[in-house]
Amino acid sequence: MSDATNLGKDPEDYIEELVKSGRYENRDAALKEAVRLLAFKEQRLAELNAALARGLAESEAGLGTPIEEVMAEFEARYAERMKKRSA
Prior knowledge:
By secondary structure, the chain is mostly helical. The protein has one domain. It has three helices and no strands.
């Protein structure tokens, strides 16, 4: 398939190229896959936005761990790992 990511030309031509290459059985199969992928992307975006909103709400409510504590734990783990490597 030639440059599968080039959508600069007419999308109908692109779909036709995908069908001719054998990648998809027909135009409907290609369009069905495109819609499936768009639906997946939109669902994932909604999930990520919801997770972000929850995280921000928890942070504003003081439910998170202060960055100083997180960094201190990270630095301690890193120091321990480096110590084991040099041993």
